[in-house]
Structures are given as structure tokens and as C-alpha cells.
């Protein structure tokens, strides 16, 4: 009952309100001359230095859901859940140079979204629209997942009711506050709040990884307890080590997720908000500090096993909500006030990425749908206004997903989200390096990769939960006719097919001399740095309103 | 602001910024963490952590070290 958790609820609420106040004040922080511009509202004036970018991008990539779901996965399946660690190691060297090129060309041309870049690079509004829609669709369930993170905490504190509305009221209130200050302050709000969020998380985790092993008999016995649990369980894929059948899945999932992460529009928003190339490069070597944090948080899953945590019941009768294991572990092992701080860290940890994601989705709508198809001559002030309103709509949509649909549905959608966002890789990431692909071939590749990816996900069931489709991302290679029990990450296969189709169709279209779109960028655009003036907007892009230089 | 020159005067130098043999080092922290043969074992344990866990956490240092080295070595060349 919630009365038993009164101290936790008070600490949680106070910290939550404090941070909300910061969100509103953020509009005045590094105050711009003119907030009515997408560069200011949606990208914080493109002026963030090393530290702010570190907190912002870190707060953006390592979300409440990560902090709740990765340990839950470790709790349930063991070693397979640890994929998040190699994933977040591989990603930074992988995108070290790529993001600098994206930043430079975006700085030069005033791009706000990845679809802006594609529109200009390949001269194809259709391809840009596909990239924009893919981005919006992939982002929506991601925002909903942040709510799943908060919900796990609220549930543990006993803040839950019987009717659907009562159960979700705290989340609706939290998101209404979030929506209000994001509307007012734009990207400045999550950037400022990220400082608090990450400081809290670092404190909580450092205390947890020092104090809990001491209390639970040392790391050795924590791993032994986990090992004993998995030995006793009938599931074939679990254990504190990988087995012969899930190693390929582990590696391809880590690599595929790394490829996908910086294709998400919200990650790109964080990167484009930085001041210059140097900030990005320094961050690529400093951000892995969060990976260490993530690895330690993941191991809370094993600590929960050693501490005999029993997850709370799930939405359906007989099911359990694995997402509650970490909040329960804190509840059982720590004094109430400290558990309250930990819950606040997770709750606030949901607000930062949710704000950035809604801003990114709103920017995509504004730049690549509204401005492209609805109002060509929109002024910067109109753009900023449309983005502000769209960000509200996006958040209402995410809340509706949680209130009216089973949260499991968001989790499944997010799984699909990873696979579909990967299909923008040839146009966005390879597009930064080569103009070789034909614009129509990229569309063909997108269609092929998307179709195959959806088919593969549809085939994946989970006998344990009785789900027949979309129950995971591990595709059994035997379905392709191989005589093996190995599985592979769907996204990797789909993006490879996408690339092959794009290459083949390019060759055909070039041979048939089908007209290609013009390239609106020059080779030098990819190396421009802070202080380089903006390129003039092409005549067909913004006829009436030249972009002011920020 | 003046109209931008299509070819900025320092373009040749700034292009050299991204081209460096040091960049090849970035492949190490991309490839090494993705080879399970290195880490998928229990022994030796370190502070009670099976090899699977401590070695993968140690690769964070490999990643930080490599990217920092590449950043430092390529920064000097591009400074002007």
C-alpha cells in the first residue's frame, strides 16, 4: 500500500517538482535573442559546449527504460542481457567521424533533422519523407517506454489504482508538466535537467555497487546465486555465460543496435545542438563513462536474484512485471529516503529523453512534412510554433499508448522501431560519405529492408509467453534453411538486404540512364566548422525566407 | 554575413583534418568487443566477476583510450 512508502513518495515528489521548476526556468538559461526560431527552440541555439553536450546526449541515450529494462533482462535471461555493454562500447568509435560530417553539413545548410540532409543530398522529397516518417514512427514507442520506466517506480511505491484512469493519473500529471516546460523552453529544458538526472543516477549507482555486494556477500556470491538460478531453470537460452546458440545473436544485436542508435532523430538532435566538431569528438571519448554506469546498473539484475527479489505481478493474470525488479531491490535493501532518491533518478531519467524525443519528432514533422508539403513559405517563427505544438501532440500520443494499450505493446513496437530506423542507414549514414546511390534505389532498398524486417519479426514467437508474433528480435537461422539452432538479430539481416537492393537497383537505373536528383551539398560542406558561414539556400527550397545566420 | 565562398580558403587544410592514418585505430574498439571467444568464459574471475563481465567492462577503457588517442593525434594536425 502507498502509506508504507510515504517517505519514498515525498522524496520522489520533491525532487520531481524541483526539476520541473528548472525546466521552466531553462527558457532563460543562455537566453537567445529570439526564441521564435527552430534553431533556438529545437536545437538550443546550436551552441552547447562539451559538458552540456555530454549530459544532454548521455541523458538522451541512456534512458529510464534502459535503467529498468536492461537489469530486468539480466534478471530474467542472464548474459544475453549484457549485450548493452558491447553495444555502447562499439558505438562511439563507430560514429566518431560520421557525426562530425553530419554536424558540419547541417551547420552549413541549417539542417535540423536527418531528413533535411537527405532532402538536400539526394534531391528527393519522397526519400526525405520516408526518412522523416520512419523517424517519427520509431520515436513514438520510445517515448512511451519512458513512461513504462516511471510506471515501474510508481507501482513499487504502491501509487496505483484499480481503474485505468486512477492507475495512470500520476503519469498523466508528470507528462502534463513535462509537456508544459518543453513547450516553453525547448531543448534547453532537458539540457539543464540532465545535470540533475545524471548526478542523481551516478550517486545512486555508486552507492548501490559498493553497498549491495557488501550486504549480499560479495560479487562472487552474487554471480553464484545467479548461476544457481539459471542452472535450475528449464529455459535453454539463459545462464551467466552465452551458449553456442546465442553468441551470434549477442554480437549482431550489439552491433545492429549501435548502428541504429545515432540514426534515431533524438540522438541527432543532441549532436546538432553542440557548438562545433571538437565538442563532438571530445564527447565520443567521454560518453563511455555512461557505459560503465550502464554495465553496473545491468548487474543490479543479478543482485536482485541474490537478494531474492520477486517481481510484482504484471498487467495480465499470472504474468510478472520484470521491470519492477530494480525498484524492488532498492525498496528492500535501502532506507526509504535513499530509495526515494533512486526512484526520482529513474523518474527524472525518463523526462530528459522523453523531452528530447518529442522535440526531435516535432522537428521532423515541421521541417519535412509541414514545410515541405503544407506551407512552403513558412517563416522561422511559424516553424518554431508548429514544432512546439507538435511536441505536445506527440506526448499526448505517447501517454495514450500507455493508458489505452498494454504497455507490452510499446515494448514490442520499440523492438520494431530499432529494425525500421536501421533502414535509414544507407540514405543518412552512407549518404554522408557517398553520393553513389541513386535516389530511387535508396527508396527500393528501404522498401525491401522494411518488408523483410517486418516479415522476420512477425515469424518470431515465444512459447513461454504464448505470443506467436513480434516476441523478440532473435531470428532462428533454421527459418532460412540452415541446419542450426543459432539466431541472428533481425535488423542486421534487413539492413544488409536493404544495401544489396539499393546497390543493384542503382546499377540498373544508371545503366538505364534514369534521371537522378541534384546534390545540394559540396565536398567542403562536410568539413565546415564553427564560424564558417552558412551556404545560401537553394532557390527551390526556401524562396521567400532566407535563413538568418545564427 | 557575406555570401559564402563555395571553396573556403582553408578547405584543403580542413579536409586533411578527417583524413588520418590514426583513424584506422578506431577499428580496434569496434571489432574486439564483438568477438565472444575472448570473453565468453567464467575464469579467471576478478574480484568475484566472471571473465565475461570484467573483460567486457574493461573494454570500455579500450574504447575510451582509443578514441582519446585518435582525437588527440588528429587534433594537432588540423589546428590552424
Automatic annotation (TrEMBL), chain A:
<feature type="transmembrane region" description="Helical">
    <location>
        <begin position="488"/>
        <end position="509"/>
    </location>
</feature>
<dbReference type="GO" id="GO:0005886">
    <property type="term" value="C:plasma membrane"/>
</dbReference>
<dbReference type="InterPro" id="IPR038377">
    <property type="entry name" value="Na/Glc_symporter_sf"/>
</dbReference>
<feature type="transmembrane region" description="Helical">
    <location>
        <begin position="285"/>
        <end position="305"/>
    </location>
</feature>
<keyword id="KW-0472">Membrane</keyword>
<feature type="transmembrane region" description="Helical">
    <location>
        <begin position="250"/>
        <end position="273"/>
    </location>
</feature>
<protein>
    <submittedName>
        <fullName>Sodium:solute symporter</fullName>
    </submittedName>
</protein>
<feature type="transmembrane region" description="Helical">
    <location>
        <begin position="74"/>
        <end position="99"/>
    </location>
</feature>
<feature type="transmembrane region" description="Helical">
    <location>
        <begin position="441"/>
        <end position="458"/>
    </location>
</feature>
<feature type="region of interest" description="Disordered">
    <location>
        <begin position="519"/>
        <end position="550"/>
    </location>
</feature>
<feature type="transmembrane region" description="Helical">
    <location>
        <begin position="386"/>
        <end position="405"/>
    </location>
</feature>
<feature type="transmembrane region" description="Helical">
    <location>
        <begin position="165"/>
        <end position="183"/>
    </location>
</feature>
<feature type="transmembrane region" description="Helical">
    <location>
        <begin position="195"/>
        <end position="214"/>
    </location>
</feature>
<feature type="transmembrane region" description="Helical">
    <location>
        <begin position="126"/>
        <end position="145"/>
    </location>
</feature>
<feature type="transmembrane region" description="Helical">
    <location>
        <begin position="6"/>
        <end position="27"/>
    </location>
</feature>
<feature type="transmembrane region" description="Helical">
    <location>
        <begin position="337"/>
        <end position="365"/>
    </location>
</feature>
<feature type="transmembrane region" description="Helical">
    <location>
        <begin position="411"/>
        <end position="434"/>
    </location>
</feature>
<keyword id="KW-0812">Transmembrane</keyword>
<keyword id="KW-0813">Transport</keyword>
<dbReference type="GO" id="GO:0022857">
    <property type="term" value="F:transmembrane transporter activity"/>
</dbReference>
<comment type="similarity">
    <text>Belongs to the sodium:solute symporter (SSF) (TC 2.A.21) family.</text>
</comment>
<keyword id="KW-1133">Transmembrane helix</keyword>
From TrEMBL, chain B:
<dbReference type="Pfam" id="PF11755">
    <property type="entry name" value="DUF3311"/>
</dbReference>
<keyword id="KW-0472">Membrane</keyword>
<keyword id="KW-1133">Transmembrane helix</keyword>
<protein>
    <submittedName>
        <fullName>DUF3311 domain-containing protein</fullName>
    </submittedName>
</protein>
<keyword id="KW-0812">Transmembrane</keyword>
<feature type="transmembrane region" description="Helical">
    <location>
        <begin position="51"/>
        <end position="71"/>
    </location>
</feature>
<dbReference type="InterPro" id="IPR021741">
    <property type="entry name" value="DUF3311"/>
</dbReference>
<feature type="transmembrane region" description="Helical">
    <location>
        <begin position="21"/>
        <end position="39"/>
    </location>
</feature>
Amino acid at each position: 500500500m502507498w502509506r508504507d512508502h510515504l517517505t519514498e513518495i515525498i522524496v520522489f515528489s520533491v525532487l520531481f517538482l524541483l526539476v520541473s521548476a528548472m525546466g521552466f526556468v531553462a527558457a532563460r538559461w543562455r537566453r537567445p535573442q529570439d526564441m521564435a526560431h527552430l534553431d533556438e527552440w529545437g536545437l538550443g541555439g546550436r551552441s552547447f559546449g562539451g559538458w552540456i553536450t555530454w549530459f544532454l546526449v548521455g541523458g538522451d541515450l541512456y534512458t529510464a527504460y534502459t535503467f529498468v529494462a536492461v537489469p530486468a533482462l539480466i534478471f530474467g535471461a542472464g548474459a544475453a542481457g549484457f549485450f548493452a555493454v558491447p553495444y555502447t562500447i562499439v558505438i562511439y568509435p563507430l560514429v566518431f567521424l560520421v557525426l562530425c560530417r553530419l554536424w558540419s553539413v547541417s551547420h552549413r545548410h541549417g539542417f535540423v533533422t536527418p531528413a533535411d540532409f537527405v532532402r538536400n543530398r539526394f534531391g528527393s522529397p519522397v526519400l526525405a519523407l520516408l526518412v522523416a516518417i520512419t523517424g517519427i514512427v520509431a520515436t513514438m514507442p520510445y517515448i512511451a517506454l519512458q513512461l513504462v520506466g516511471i510506471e515501474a517506480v510508481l507501482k513499487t511505491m504502491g501509487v496505483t489504482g484499480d481503474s485505468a484512469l486512477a492507475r495512470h493519473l500520476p503519469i498523466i500529471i508528470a507528462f502534463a508538466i513535462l509537456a508544459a516546460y518543453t513547450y516553453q523552453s525547448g531543448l534547453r529544458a532537458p539540457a539543464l535537467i540532465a545535470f540533475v538526472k545524471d548526478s542523481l543516477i551516478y550517486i545512486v549507482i555508486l552507492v548501490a555497487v559498493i553497498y549491495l555486494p557488501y550486504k549480499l556477500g560479495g560479487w562472487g556470491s552474487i554471480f553464484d546465486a545467479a548461476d544457481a538460478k539459471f542452472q535450475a531453470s528449464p529455459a535453454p537460452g539463459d545462464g551467466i555465460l552465452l551458449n553456442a546458440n546465442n553468441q551470434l545473436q549477442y554480437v549482431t544485436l550489439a552491433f545492429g543496435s549501435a548502428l541504429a542508435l545515432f540514426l534515431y532523430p533524438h540522438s541527432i538532435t543532441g549532436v546538432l545542438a553542440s557548438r562545433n566538431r571538437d565538442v563532438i569528438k571530445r564527447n565520443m571519448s567521454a560518453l563511455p563513462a555512461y557505459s560503465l554506469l550502464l554495465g553496473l546498473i545491468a548487474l543490479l539484475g543479478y543482485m536482485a536474484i541474490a537478494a531474492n527479489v520477486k517481481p510484482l505481478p504484471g498487467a495480465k493474470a499470472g504474468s510478472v512485471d520484470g521491470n519492477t525488479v530494480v525498484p524492488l531491490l532498492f525498496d528492500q535493501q535501502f532506507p526509504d529516503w535513499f530509495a526515494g532518491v533512486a526512484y526520482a533518478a529513474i523518474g527524472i531519467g525518463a523526462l530528459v529523453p522523453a523531452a528530447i524525443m518529442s522535440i526531435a519528432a516535432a522537428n521532423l514533422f515541421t521541417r519535412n512534412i509541414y514545410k515541405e508539403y503544407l506551407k512552403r513559405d513558412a517563416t522561422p517563427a511559424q516553424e518554431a510554433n508548429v514544432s512546439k505544438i507538435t511536441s505536445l501532440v506527440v506526448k499526448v500520443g505517447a501517454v495514450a499508448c500507455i493508458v489505452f494499450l498494454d504497455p507490452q505493446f510499446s515494448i514490442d513496437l520499440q523492438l520494431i522501431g530499432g529494425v525500421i530506423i536501421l533502414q535509414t542507414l544507407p540514405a543518412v549514414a552512407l549518404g554522408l560519405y557517398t553520393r553513389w546511390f541513386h535516389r530511387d534505389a535508396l527508396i527500393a532498398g528501404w522498401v525491401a529492408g522494411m518488408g523483410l524486417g517486418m516479415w522476420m519479426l512477425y515469424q518470431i514467437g515465444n512459447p513461454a509467453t504464448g505470443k506467436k508474433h513480434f516476441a523478440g528480435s532473435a531470428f532462428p537461422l533454421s527459418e532460412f534453411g540452415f541446419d542450426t539452432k543459432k539466431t541472428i538479430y533481425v535488423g542486421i539481416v534487413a539492413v544488409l538486404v536493404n544495401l544489396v537492393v539499393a546497390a543493384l537497383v542503382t546499377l540498373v537505373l544508371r545503366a538505364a540512364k534514369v534521371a537522378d536528383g541534384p546534390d545540394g551539398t559540396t565536398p567542403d560542406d562536410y568539413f565546415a566548422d564553427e564560424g564558417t558561414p552558412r551556404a545560401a539556400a537553394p532557390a527551390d527550397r526556401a524562396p521567400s525566407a532566407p535563413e538568418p545566420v545564427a | 554575413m557575406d555570401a559564402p565562398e563555395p571553396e573556403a580558403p582553408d578547405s584543403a587544410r580542413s579536409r586533411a583534418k578527417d583524413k588520418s592514418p590514426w583513424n584506422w585505430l578506431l577499428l580496434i574498439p569496434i571489432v574486439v568487443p564483438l568477438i565472444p571467444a575472448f570473453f565468453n568464459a567464467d575464469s579467471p574471475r576478478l574480484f568475484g566477476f566472471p571473465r565475461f563481465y570484467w573483460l567486457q567492462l574493461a573494454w570500455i577503457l579500450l574504447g575510451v583510450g582509443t578514441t582519446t588517442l585518435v582525437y588527440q593525434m588528429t587534433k594537432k594536425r588540423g589546428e590552424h
